[in-house]
Write a structure and sequence with these properties.
binds aspartic acid; binds magnesium ion; alpha/beta; globular
Length: 293
């Protein structure tokens, strides 16, 4: 336990799950089980990606609108991805929460339709509109996860990255100001929920405009969250076994490393290791947060 402002805080564990792990309901619910198991031991803050295909489809939808082409089929596909998950999740969610998920989905769909019409008229999509649209997959993942966790009688809530993570730089490749964001987190009583879920890939700039943290930015979101809340550790759950000393797809006897220093991780990633981006390693190195892959 440590003192933040006037609140004693238990160190939380950060856990990040990517799009492949959340691609459909069976996988999504397996992730929920992993989170619940962890939460039976320690408070958890997890970071979620959009289910696989969603971010690509949202981006493609915007591009079609820019080129005055028909984006409705893609929009329908994104909708269907969530409807399929919500329907299969129905038995594991309270009826009111289930209804709420549909309301949130409908709000997003209405918002996209409206923006995409504008984009089609302009023949161009300003970055701030693109950012606003593409972060929605992460938000919907997070809403669903909170509903599932709550159904297991564990307190849970969404951490809204637009209110907590201040980021600067290009709207689609923004970099988080960790010191400023830490101050915002210090004002939040994290002890009110056992599980917090933060949509990855998302932040807001000084003007309150939604920004993205770059493609595959959810790992970076997890690292930043861990730094902001002085997490006990940051776990990146992924579909590879961990970090190898060389690219296992190219070298047959590549060896899985049991541990490496922040410096070594940084070097490997500069030389092309895809497991962790240098941008992701920086915050966990700066705040000396152990990271498990
Ligand atoms: N969903 C975003 C992307 O596909 C961010 C992430 O998953 O890390 O780039
Ligand atoms: Mg990834």
């Amino acid at each position: 336990m440590f003192l933040v402002g006037r609140v004693w805080r238990h160190k939380m564990k950060v856990m990040k799950f990517g799009g492949t792990s959340l691609a459909n309901w069976p996988r999504f619910s397996a992730v929920a089980e992993i989170i619940l198991t962890a939460a039976s031991v320690t408070p958890v803050a997890c970071v979620l990606s959009a289910p696989a295909t969603v971010t690509n489809n949202l981006l493609a939808m915007v591009e079609l609108a820019e080129n005055e082409q028909d984006y409705q089929p893609l929009l329908a596909q994104v909708k269907q991805t969530f409807v399929d998950m919500f329907e299969q999740a129905k038995a594991d969610i309270a009826p009111a929460a289930h209804q709420h998920l549909y309301t949130v989905l409908e709000q997003h769909l209405a918002h996209w339709q409206q923006k995409l019409q504008g984009v089609q008229l302009l023949g161009h999509c300003p970055d701030l509109i693109r950012a606003e649209i593409v972060v929605c997959g992460e938000r919907l993942s997070s809403e669903l996860m909170v509903a599932v966790i709550k159904q297991a009688q564990v307190s849970a809530g969404v951490l809204v990255p637009q209110s907590l993570l201040l980021a600067n730089g290009p709207i689609l490749e923004a970099v988080v100001d960790i010191d400023a964001s830490r101050q915002r987190f210090n004002l939040v009583d994290l002890s009110i929920n056992r599980v917090w879920v933060m949509p990855g890939f998302t932040a807001a700039n000084d003007d309150g405009v939604t920004v993205t943290l770059g493609r595959n930015g959810s790992d970076y979101s997890a690292a930043v969250l861990a730094a902001c809340i002085d997490a006990a550790c940051c776990e990146i759950w992924t579909d590879v076994d961990g970090v190898y000393n060389t690219d296992p797809r190219l070298v047959a006897d590549a060896q899985l490393l049991s541990q490496l220093s922040y410096q070594e991780a940084m070097e490997l990633s500069y030389f092309g290791a895809k497991v962790l981006h240098p941008k992701t390693i920086a915050p966990i190195a700066q705040y000396q947060i152990p990271c498990y892959i």
